[in-house]
Design goal:
Chain lengths: 368, 306
């Protein structure tokens, strides 16, 4: 018989193994799902997970989608570590895109060398400004950041919708709700020729390194970690909760805003009604899969990016809705949460208590 | 015709799904469990209810199937948070993300199909009364059932023995456990009830309000329901009042658009979300309001040593 027993110390092996277990669980479920849908699972897996990245262009697409997921995931992971539940990275991304896109439209066709740096800066500031709202409301008015950040996602999307339908609509755009295309100086240069991947992925990977240094080697990072693991200890040590909340939200606002401007200045090349297929929400899963650790988040972002590519491939190649991506994402997070149980608990074999172990004395009695 | 009457009538219809979802979540939270998965369960309810009604033509079966599907999801949440003691916030978020994905996947082939709207009932003699008849006696059956639900939940939480046990568990599971109450069983039942109500709320969207299936059609209503629970300080009466206020806000935008107010529609559509934030600020401003009303064990796992 197996019994759950609490471990004396959390297992560090399990904390790395659990995302892998979760991925296996997701694949097994996917196998069954494809079978139920009447598709050959092996072929479907090939189409979903291998074919999209079998060409240079495909690798480029993988890195392209990794960029916003990684950027948002880094910021979220830092916040989750400190128990700051910002779930509105999608809104901060949208605001970053609006601010960066606004600067791009202001520069128009000018070839100014300042255009791109200013756009990136505006994107970062836009995201931070949007994240400042929940930070202020939480620290000043004690308002739950989960609900506020989420409501701000809807508001940011409506702001974007208003801009591309109204003031920023391209007059020559045949009434499509989109802005003018950005000029060459307002578009990020391609990193690998023959693909669409931009310098954004380099920024994102660089920031992963910075985030690692911040969380592992700085006092501010340490304070945030203590606040997450042991709030009472953090309070006793005099670490300011408000400062942690501000830092967590500002960093996430900045990275998500950067993600937004990288999208509009990269593959999209203009402002339009939809900028992200939910990268900000998928980044929540990225952060958890990555164990809230910057290096882990890189792998989490790559996996999630592959799920997006697979979903698109499944739509084109198998006629399945691309929403299958969301299904897999949700499954992955569920399996991860369940597998995480084994970080703090372990299965222990308990000697089976069987009925016949009670028998010998009875037999002895009858014999006597 | 007087525009006030249809305005109030549409407010009631807008508020009804919020009432179901928020009252369900109230019971869940009063037992000490925070389920952030309402949005996901609502979407599953919406798509299941729609598909069932589309196939059978029966709205009753649609609502029933919606409740069952959402209960199934809530059991998954219950297993993870109550048995495996996963983080309730993270698990609830997972439930929402999963629900959004699953509903979009399942509902792919149902997008844009028509279904017969659940029609308002006519009460002989009463519905025919001018103004009052339209205001009070001309809604679909689910509106009246939502009132019954409110009375039931209010009675359950304040007057019934089981409700007292549930509240005790929400305040202090260890004390309730020590006097022989089953924390696990009560919380499971509460989570399932919350799931059923979220499913019905979702089906109300796809069978009455819109009536069709659109991907992500709940558009944050599940989260607004969560905010309503805080707004109502975990008390059914205030939550229902809050739901009608919110219904009014969402309807105001439609009427303002109809009257041709010179405000871009996007800004009017922001109203419910902005109102949610403002309302949360007002309620949470004083930490004592939350401390005194929020179930003390909300969001914390309970692991009995035995």
């Amino acid at each position: 018989m197996l019994k759950l027993e609490r471990r004396a110390t959390p297992s560090s092996i399990m904390s790395v193994a659990s995302p892998l277990l979760a991925a296996v669980g997701m694949l097994v479920t996917g196998f069954v799902l494809f079978k139920v849908l009447g598709k050959d699972p092996v072929e479907a897996f090939y189409l979903f997970f291998v074919k999209p990245v079998s060409t240079t262009y495909g690798i480029g697409e993988l890195l392209l989608k990794t960029t916003p997921l990684l950027l948002c995931g880094l910021g979220l992971a830092l916040g989750f570590r400190a128990n700051v539940w910002n779930i509105g990275a999608e809104g901060q991304l949208t605001m970053g895109a609006i601010a960066g896109g606004g600067v791009a439209l202001w520069f128009g066709d000018s070839e100014s060398a300042f255009a791109m740096p200013l756009m990136l800066l505006a994107g970062v500031l836009g995201g931070m400004a949007w994240a400042a709202i929940p930070a202020f409301l939480r620290t000043r008015f004690n308002t739950n950041e989960i609900l506020v950040t989420l409501m701000l996602v809807y508001i940011s999307q409506l702001v974007l919708s208003w801009l591309v339908h109204g003031p920023w609509r391209d007059p020559q755009g045949l009434n499509y709700p989109q802005s003018q295309g950005f000029g060459d100086a307002e578009t990020m240069s391609i990193l690998i020729s023959g693909t669409r991947v931009t310098w954004g992925i380099v920024y994102a990977l660089g920031l992963a390194l910075v985030a690692w240094i911040f969380s592992q080697k700085t006092f501010a990072g340490f304070r945030m970690q203590v606040a997450g693991l042991a709030p009472a200890a953090a309070a006793y040590a005099g670490f300011s909760e408000k400062r942690n909340i501000w830092i967590a939200l500002m960093i996430c606002g900045a990275t998500a805003g950067l993600a937004g401007v990288c999208e509009v200045a990269g593959p999209i090349g203009r402002l339009q009604q939809q900028i992200s297929p939910g990268y900000g929400f998928a980044a929540i899963i990225v952060a958890w899969i990555g164990r809230l650790h910057p290096i882990g988040v890189v792998f989490g972002a790559l996996l999630m990016s592959l799920l997006y590519l697979g979903g698109e491939a499944a739509q084109m190649g198998m006629g399945l809705p691309s929403a299958i991506t969301g299904l897999f994402q949700g499954l992955l997070l569920f399996y991860l949460l369940a597998a995480d149980l084994f970080i703090t608990f372990r299965l222990k074999r308990v000697a089976p208590v069987e009925a016949n172990t009670l028998k010998p004395p009875v037999q002895a009695e009858t014999a006597a | 015709m007087n525009p006030i009457v249809p305005m109030i009538a549409s407010t009631v219809v807008a508020a009804t799904p919020l009432i179901y979802a928020a009252l369900g979540e109230t019971v869940v939270e009063r037992s000490g469990v925070l389920n952030l998965g309402i949005e996901g369960m609502m979407l599953i309810g919406a798509v299941t209810g729609f598909a069932t009604t589309y196939a059978t033509g029966s709205a009753a079966l649609g609502f029933l199937a919606a409740a069952c599907a959402a209960v199934a999801l809530s059991l998954l949440f219950g297993f993870l948070t109550l048995n495996l003691q996963t983080n309730q916030v993270a698990t609830g978020l997972a439930l929402t993300l999963f629900g959004i994905g699953l509903s979009a996947f399942v509902g792919y082939n149902y997008a844009g199909l028509p279904v017969n709207r659940l029609t308002p009932i006519t009460i002989p003699g009463l519905t025919a009364i001018p103004v009052v008849g339209d205001l009070l006696f001309h809604y679909d059956i689910m509106v009246y059932l939502s009132i019954a639900l409110f009375v039931g939940v209010q009675w359950f939480l304040t007057k019934s023995r089981t409700g007292l046990t549930l509240r005790a568990i929400g305040e202090s599971p260890s004390v309730a456990h020590s006097i022989g109450k089953s924390v696990l069983k009560t919380r499971y039942l509460a989570v399932m009830f919350g799931g059923a109500m979220a499913g019905i709320a979702g089906a109300y969207l796809s069978l009455v309000q819109t009536p069709m299936w659109v991907e992500g059609m709940s558009a944050g209503k599940g989260w607004i329901a969560l905010a309503l629970v805080v707004f109502g300080t975990w008390k059914p009466t205030r939550i229902v009042v809050g739901a009608y206020l919110f219904g009014g806000v969402t309807q105001f935008q439609l009427f303002a658009q109809g009257f041709g107010l010179p405000i871009p529609t996007e800004f009017l559509s922001m109203l419910p979300y902005a109102a949610t934030i403002i309302v949360l600020v007002i309620i949470c401003r004083d930490p004592k309001t939350i401390l005194l009303n929020q179930p003390a064990s909300l969001g914390r796992s309970f692991h009995s040593a035995a």
